[in-house]
Sequence to fold (370 residues):
Amino acid sequence: MKKVVGSVLALVVVAVAGLGIWFVAEYRGARVDTVGKVDFDRPMAIPEIAGSTVEADGTRVFELDIQKGTTDLGKAQPTRTWGINGPFLGPTLRASRGEKVRIEATNSLGEPTTLHWHGMHLPAEMDGGPHQMIEAGATWEPHWEINQPAATLWYHPHLHGETASHVYNGLAGLFILDDPSESDLGLPDTYGVDDLPVMVQDKNFDDDGQFDDSHSIFSNLGVLGEEILVNGTPSPYAEVGTESVRLRLLNGSGGRTFNFTFDDARTFELIATDGGLLDAPAAMDRLQLAPGERAEIVVDFSPGRRPFSAARSWPETATASPAVTPVSTSCSCVRPRPSLLRRTCPGPLPPSIASTRQLRRRLEALSCRA
Ligand SMILES: [Cu+2]
Fold:
């Protein structure tokens, strides 16, 4: 009898332990760290600047076609993806403060979607929320005037219950706002050369190389992908030709928070967050971005060699793999960094934004020098 009880107890212990391991695995939902497992053998894609036309009254018009396609993401067969003006992701829209813009967004997906301008100050009826569906085959033409400081924004669908999956499939792009009064600060500003977009998204793939956005039954975060794409490129590296490089970081993931840092823990300077330029650069060696958040950093690289591996996510916060490997191949001079970024005293930072909460502490120590 004792033997039977012992065996049953052992079985129960094994079962509970197994259940615990399964629970933890399910709860975590993905690997925590892929550092060292990525080869960095593909040049990082740089989204094109979207073409536009300017009408007689000065309105800048962008034509966007929301569509389906396929993309080589390093799998045995092409991955079915969604994109804007192309098969995967969207071009970078760019406009200046004071300009009127109009978007002619045509939905060729075969199903309804929306386009939302994340971070843009604009009338509610232009914002592309769930109440502004673009039906299949329809064209939606929101228009507004850019009236906010220079900033890195992004656009993506924002429809009820399907936002995450439409973004996951590939509908996302940057919207860079320029402010003429801030263009003489001497910051790296040649797009694709020393001013690089870095849109980071985590993905899971099924055995056929297709996106898999199913997630753990215990995860209320959303999908935590095990592979990291930057601007839609797996295993990306980027060559840079100047020592000072500006990276416009966007966490375009649905659930994963990234804590960006470099292999050698080098210091970089944070120059902007979601709302635009800070009043002064803030030196740091790690930067956390939750889904949807943006930041601009300036980092220095040594010339002529492949110096260090990467901006990567720090394992303690969430998972991740190195995101981008900047390589500097030749040198121009390190630009002097302006000590003052904004011309005027900024207002209080929005309290709801996690990364700016941390920055607020740093900024409180700075007196406004405008
Ligand atoms: Cu958004």
User: Anything to note?
Assistant: The radius of gyration is 22 Å. The helical segments are 2-28, 163-169, 354-364. The pocket of copper (II) ion is lined by residues 116, 118, 156, 292 (CB under 6 Å).
